[in-house]
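As practice, study what follows.
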Amino acid sequence: MIVRLHRIFSLSLWMAIAGTPQASHAALTPEKLYKKNLPSVMTLEVENQRGERFVGSAVLALADDSALTAWHVVADARSVWAVFADGQRVKVLGCIDYDSLRDLALLKLEKQMPHRKATLSRELQSVAARAYVIGAPKGFDFSISDGLISQIRDVDGFLQYQLSCPISPGNSGSPVLNHRGEVIGIASWTKADAQNVSFAIPTQQLIRLDLSRQPTTWEQLAATAHPDLPARSVAPRYAINKADEAAGDSETFAAFRKRLNQYAGKSVTIIVQEAGRTNTFKFDGK
């Protein structure tokens, strides 16, 4: 059994870092909310240990050189770059801390990015409250969507926001914002067999991450065994596949068939998820 220990912030330290509640509780228009938070949002370009490339999202939080995202976005990373809306591209040096169960990770940027840090809210939001998500659905970076907090549910032993906001692959790690433009959660996963049933990890869970730790490089992280993520219907990290890029969305199945041809003569296992069921098909290449 492999156990990963996490240091825990004291409540006072967490409150000092997250900041004090805003004096004004007035709702922002979507336009003002987007303008306010856009400088803190980044698209993560991730290359994993097998050389595959993915796109996720993150938000500058807790410090001017730390990014908050979903752990599954970077769990198998070999290199990570953060791209901001103004075109700045910053290398991500490694992972400061992570919580695999809650699908949260705190990343270390190569340099400080002052005057961009998002405001976090420590308050658990109400059901039916308005929510916004800024991220990179299907690689279309810095897109905003809106919806409601549909419900607050106990999943995997802790509370999570169920959202009606449209969330697609690439939105992993996106900040979820309230009507005041404060970050209230991090987009984590969606139900594969439902429409607009997505889940985000409330910022209250960040108290389990330790900002004071020295960052672990991607090489060090790869050499250290870590727990698997809890089973989800969909982990919305967007894969950039060269075959799919060449074929286009309308020819994705043709690209899939082409990929299968590369495994001619080999044993192949295909897992298909449909209507909430998982079917496994094994083909013996002999």
Notes: Residues 241-283 form one domain. Residues 46 and 281 are 29 Å apart (CA to CA). The chain has two domains: 11-223, 241-283. The two ends are 36 Å apart (CA to CA).
